[in-house]
Amino acid sequence: MTDDLARDFEARFGSPPTHLARAPGRVNLIGEHTDYNGLPVLPMALHKEIRIAVRPREDGQVVLQNTNEFFPPLDFEVEPAIPPFVRGAWGNYAKAAANELARRFAIWRGFDGLVDSDLPEAAGLSSSSALVNAVGLTLGRINEVSTEPRAFAEVMADAERYVGTRGGGMDQAISLGARNRCAAKITFHPLRLQHVTVPDDWCFVVADTGVRAEKSGAARVGYNRRREECEEAFRIVSGELATRGVTEKLATSYAQLVRAVDSETLVALGEGILEGSLKRRFRHVVREAARVEEAADRMLAADTVGFGTLMDQSHASLRSDFLVSSAELDELVAVAREGGAAGARLTGAGFGGCVVALADRWTVGGVLETLVSEWFERRDMTDRIDERVFIAVPSRGASWEPLGV
Length: 405
Prior knowledge:
This protein has helices at residues 2-13, 91-105, 127-142, 149-160, 170-177, 219-244, 254-260, 263-273, 276-300, 304-320, 327-338, 364-376, 385-388; strands spanning 19-30, 42-56, 61-66, 74-77, 111-117, 182-187, 192-197, 202-208, 343-347, 354-360, 389-392, 399-402. The protein is globular. It is 44% helix and 20% strand. The protein has a domain at 2-197 and 398-402: Ribosomal Protein S5, domain 2, CATH 3.30.230. It is an alpha+beta fold. β9 (343-347) and β10 (354-360) form a beta hairpin. The chain is built from 13 helices and twelve strands. The strands form three sheets. Strands 4-3-5-2-1-12 form a six-stranded mixed β-sheet. Strands 9-10-8-11 form a four-stranded antiparallel β-sheet. α3 (127-142) packs across α4 (149-160), α6 crosses α9 (276-300) and α8 runs antiparallel to α9 (276-300).
């Protein structure tokens, strides 16, 4: 694929590329809507990725083309305060990385690039963050900015907010810092990745509902509103704990709350002082963070049943408390379980996109067969079936590599 991409680049730009930037997507196994609250998550990087064939320029222009004709060519100047394209344009993710690096590090040099991807778009698998990372990694390297994964992930997380979604830092961190055969429990403030080897017998199956979940589009308002609700619930609970003397002073983060008070005590407090959506959002966030901690232990112990149960609990909470599931996601989760999955849940922000199901080498065939026959065939969605349902391979993080050496 790299050779084909290099030849395509040369045909379009008139000379060969010098480097390849690549950044994988991710599947989040558990810990949804916790990262922007400063609480842990447990994702793994995918074998599917964004690739950019690159040739540095001697001026400040970024000129990008895409092998997918759906995405039109674009160009822009590297400078602080880069004006965005129209909302939802794919080029805004490239501008996001350039804008943040220019603002922080006064970078000036651009590049010609040809983008290729085998990641489905708007499917909850972080294709957007992979593009931000790949462009950011390219601009960082050619402008001699340090791209050490953990520090650079925090820069790229800030960068992506350029598109208008108030996301957390999970996607950038796992895409840049993942290891082969591992998931990672990610904690924040400061950012840390604890790599956890995925048991050899485990198989995570990803299946796409086909309903687009565009956080820069229609889902953006709902996503940002839930973050605001989480913040408001935190302020109320934190104030109550300080008033009661449970904490010595006003907590400044969810992480401080869950360190000071066990999760079920926090949930009970929230039940008493919060109302409506604030109560439901708080309950999900606190219990989901506890599920992440337990899930990492279950993975270390190769406890398939225990991990699957936590996935089921996570989906129920996302459906009933966080209200980000859908009829399609719920049905696809149920089909995966009927096929023999130990557990299944929506993955990503919700509002559409994909589910992830846990099987093992003995049950994965039945899970795949049931998903295809009971979901995709009944909806006449068997074209590109290998892209719609697949076994996720825990893979390494992003890289910048010379070509033709």
